Amino acid sequence: MMKTYSAKAADLQPKWYVIDAEGQVLGRLATQIAHILRGKHKPTFTPHLNSGDFVIVINAEKIAVSGNRLDQKVYYRHTQYPGGLKKTTLRQTLEGKHPERALEHAVRGMVMHNRLGTRVMSRLKIYAGPTHPHEAQKPAIWEGPETLLKQLTEAK
């Protein structure tokens, strides 16, 4: 009889990864980040646990988009007052005070919309510039899931 593996919270050991967003397409990068945060790249993936890794994104202000998306993509928010609908384009967001919010908004839409999703999003650290304050965690550079497979086969 086969048994389904289910990881325990004590078995999980999250790693830290750095991703350089310069020149990368917003949506494609957001899917990779959501995949890492959720932990789906690991063989120990467990749906009900926060089994993902920490992700540090640098150069978020230099992210690329295709087509006319800079002017056509609009973020809406409402002040909860009559007539309080506010619109912001992607260009205004990237050129504004907090350009990292565009990538955060894209990733937030790709993770679960519940308490586990909130805990998953707390592992995402986005910085507009090329520096970050997480050197003490010794983050590795993310090069894709293929690299993880090589590391696992070399360890055996």
Tally of helical runs: 6
Pick out the low-confidence regions: none
Estimate the strand proportion: 15-25%
Largest sheet: 4 strands, parallel
Class by SSE composition: alpha/beta
Distance between the termini: 26 Å
CATH topology of the domain at 17-65 and 104-144: Ribosomal Protein L13p, Chain: A
Instruction: Report the CATH superfamily of the domain at 17-65 and 104-144.
Output: Ribosomal protein L13
Strand numbers in spatial order across the main sheet: 5-2-1-6
Oligomer: single chain
Elements, N to C (H/E):
EHEHEEHHHEEH
Key traits:
single chain; 156 residues; alpha/beta; Ribosomal Protein L13p, Chain: A; four-stranded parallel beta sheet; two-stranded antiparallel ribbon; 6 helices; globular; Large ribosomal subunit protein uL13; ribonucleoprotein
Structure described in brief:
The protein has 6 helices and 6 strands.
